[in-house]
Design goal:
This protein has 307 residues and is an alpha/beta fold. The chain folds into two domains: 80 residues, Arc Repressor Mutant, subunit A; 214 residues, D-Maltodextrin-Binding Protein, domain 2. The chain is 42% helix and 24% strand. The protein contains eleven helices and twelve strands. The strands form three sheets. Strands 3, 4, 5, 6, 7, 10, 11 and 12 form an eight-stranded mixed beta sheet that branches. A two-stranded antiparallel sheet has the order 1-2. Helix 1 packs across helix 2 and helix 9 crosses helix 10. The chain is elongated. It starts with a helix and ends in a 16-residue tail after the last helix.
Length: 307
């Protein structure tokens, strides 16, 4: 039985994508070559690793066992590369990071830019996910770390402080709510809304909160950026809920009013989670050290209301 690292990386990509075609694409490999490698692995083991169907593939029990060992081997390889990176010029490290909408759009860009400049041999693959998805994915080893709200149960994951995030409501300047400073989410649900795309972690979070109230948001349009949301709201299409940092930025160039949401879940402590920090590749440890903020735990009453 001879598997090389290319085989193992390919198998992990196929398992994550639930598709040989998509897995081959992620591995930068031709489909025919990827299929041949998977068949070669199955022939070497003498058991099928994948159940192939019309809509993709599923792991067999042997496939799940191989996936576990493949992740461990690849993770150890990344650790080795990280530890030797200071000596081996050009060795590249790779970190897979998950983040919610607020962190990805408002906080991480500048922080990651500084990190990537400081560590030119480390690449980062970042993906937007809802907080509850991140816990499962990090726990299963599908990502090195996640930046998420501490409102979800972290289980056995290690947690480090990252920052704070407050969700606010933006309205057109002439809207009947514009003179107010605070509003409850249940009142917002009575209005026509401008929302983010279906894949947005923030939109999924708001949808979940609406479901808890037995309501459904009345979305008139979905767009893919906070700036686009602000423009739509300014033109009177509807009102919206976005992070306060994005709201304040939009208000600099748009005629918008900002109201604080009174619901407790609208103020979120953001944290970084990982499985076992000490066992992570050095590249991932360096990223977490760069992102974590020792004094990120801010008193909720100290966050100023939007003017």
């Amino acid at each position: 039985m001879r598997f090389d690292l290319t085989d193992l990386r390919l198998f992990v990509h196929v398992a994550d994508a639930a598709s040989i075609t998509h897995g081959a694409t992620r591995a930068n490999m031709a489909l025919a070559s990827a299929s041949a490698r998977i068949r070669g692995m199955e022939d070497a083991l003498g058991v099928p690793l994948l159940d192939r169907g019309r809509r993709g593939v599923r792991l067999t029990p042997a496939g799940r066992a191989l996936l576990h060992h493949a992740r461990v081997i690849l993770q150890q390889t990344e650790r080795m590369r990280g530890e030797l990176g200071d000596y081996a010029h050009g060795v590249k490290g790779h970190v897979r990071l998950l983040a919610n909408t607020s962190a990805l759009s408002e906080m991480l860009p500048e922080m990651l830019a500084a990190f990537l400049t400081a560590y030119p041999n480390i690449d980062i693959d970042i993906e937007e996910r809802p907080s509850f998805d991140m816990v499962e994915m990090v726990s299963q080893g599908l990502a090195d770390a996640g930046v998420l709200s501490d409102a979800v149960d972290m289980g056995d994951l290690e947690v480090f402080p990252f920052g704070v995030d407050r969700l606010v409501v933006i309205v057109p300047r002439k809207h009947r709510f514009a003179a107010r400073r605070r509003i409850a989410f249940k009142e917002v649900l009575g209005e026509e809304l401008v929302g983010m795309t279906y894949s947005s972690a923030l939109q999924q979070y708001l949808g979940h909160q609406a479901t808890l109230l037995g309501r459904q948001p009345k979305l008139r349009v979905r767009v893919n950026s906070f700036e686009a949301v602000g423009r739509m709201v300014e033109q009177g299409v509807g009102i919206s809920i976005i992070p306060d940092s994005a709201a304040l930025r939009c208000r600099k160039t748009m005629a918008l009013g900002i109201l604080r949401l009174t619901d407790k879940w609208a103020f979120r402590q953001l944290v970084i989670c990982c499985r076992h920090y000490a066992e992570l590749p050095v590249h991932a440890q360096r990223l977490i050290d760069h992102l974590k903020t020792p004094d990120a735990d801010v008193d909720r009453q100290s966050v100023p209301e939007p003017a």
